[in-house]
Amino acid sequence: MHLYRKSIVLFGIVIPVMASALLVGVGFLLKSKMTTSFEAKQKNFKTYEIGRVAGLQIESEVERLHQHINRWNSLLSQESASTVTTHLREICEHLPNKEIQQTAFERPSTKSGFGTISAQNSSQIRIAFRGTYRTIQRAFLELETRMPQLQLQELRIDPSSAQSSLLNFQASYTAWER
Fold first, then answer.
1. Which of 45, 47, 59, 76 is most buried, judged by most C-beta within 10 A?
2. What is the rounded radius of gyration, in angstroms, for the C-alpha atoms of the chain?
3. DSSP β-bridge partners for residue 100
């Protein structure tokens, strides 16, 4: 019996313990890799969900604003000069005649200002008024509210020689078109 003692200890105890320890180590290594992979996948899923929810929110906002997009497209498709004239006529009807008077309306054939450097179609409009500051300010506010495609390019305000309470206003607009 003495002869086989080393072999029994080696093959009966040491090798099985080492094989078991190796299997347990491999199991822990696989478990940690799976845990790391699971956490990374959870993080990616949370990021995806945040992006998906944000996309759905933006989509609902765009859907809600779709009616405005159609209105803006119809505004851009109208001829600017005639639309400005129509709106100015309507605006001046609601304001006191003594405080506002349109003195000029021009539509220069050459582009200037922002329209020259942009690929977007545009036209130029020059308007001149004589009136009180507050009334002209209300008229410009109303015009720019009704026509958001107008971009103020230049505004000049000079005192009127005819009456001290009135001012002369000259405004140049770039009207963006389709």
1. 76
2. 39
3. 131
Q: What is the spatial distance between Cα 151 and Cα 141, in angstroms, rounded to a whole number?
A: 12
For residue 130 the two structure tokens come to 């004589």
Assigned token pair, 82: 């005639």
Question: What is the per-residue pLDDT for 113?
Answer: 66
Question: What's at 39, amino acid-wise?
Answer: E
CA distance 106 to 144: 17
pLDDT in tens, 24-83: 999 999 999 999 999 999 999 999 999 999 999 999 988 888 877 777 777 777 777 788
State how far the Cα of 34 lies from the Cα of 39, in Å rounded to an integer: 9
**58-to-47, 48, 54, 64 alpha-carbon distances in Å:** 17, 15, 6, 10
Alpha helices (runs of H) in 65-123, residue ranges in sequence order: 66-77, 80-94, 114-117
DSSP 3: G
What residues does 124 pair with on adjacent strands?
174
Beta strand extents in 36-162 (DSSP E only): 100-106, 122-131, 150-159
